[in-house]
């Protein structure tokens, strides 16, 4: 049975901590490096429910994408969520390891997993930050409609209450696709520079998304406008933060299974850590001329 130190060594070989962004907090959060590891639970977020699932499984280690302690705290008393999480980990001898932006930039990593779900085979970096490549951009083997791409993603992603939001005509052809798992509206300028037909990301806020679409409409109008065969790109697909990064977990499970002894059980969490539970009134706007 490997020690926690050995599993951390494997994880840091996959996702070197030095490749994380300077503001990030990655690595071992809790656990004795000498403790044996027989069961590992993989999850997007280290929530109380995920920790409870790990305890129920008898897991020795949780590996998550998002950090537990990204921002400074001044107490680990169990009267707060962070304190309760730390307490539950320590009391139950469950270690926690986080691989965040170092997993985003890895190959394979979060970006490549989202690119593969879209059907992209050969990709390049969308942008560079702190000497690290962020996001991916590439071309599909064949052009598909925007709806087809969204439905392809929907089949690969875990179900969430919010589903997938799309900005653009359903029948618009797309081939060049940019992706960035998690929150991505800060990279809309990079998407425009990349020449992508569609941008797949998450957490698209109203103003950045609306301004990106308005800029696309303005450029199309200068080139002849809608109806003159000019596409109003890039279109936008908001796949959800949790869902777009969950895609990384199956690949991580396979890599860990190949690197660790067969005696180690590796499970993917069944807890949906997307914060939304249901939506009301999620209907598309009426088509022009529709009296409904």
From TrEMBL:
Pfam families: DUF34_NIF3
Record carries keyword Metal-binding: yes
Key words, A-Z: Metal-binding
A single MF term (Gene Ontology): metal ion binding
GO cellular component: cytoplasm
Binding-site residues for a divalent metal cation, renumbered to this chain: 65-66, 104, 241, 245
InterPro entries referenced in this protein's UniProt entry, alphabetically: DUF34/NIF3, DUF34/NIF3_sf
Keyword Calcium recorded: no
NCBIfam families: YbgI_SA1388
Protein family: Belongs to the GTP cyclohydrolase I type 2/NIF3 family.
Oligomeric and partner information: Homohexamer.
Protein name: GTP cyclohydrolase 1 type 2 homolog
Annotated organism of origin: Ornithinimicrobium tianjinense
Phylogenetic placement of the source organism: Bacteria, Bacillati, Actinomycetota, Actinomycetes, Micrococcales
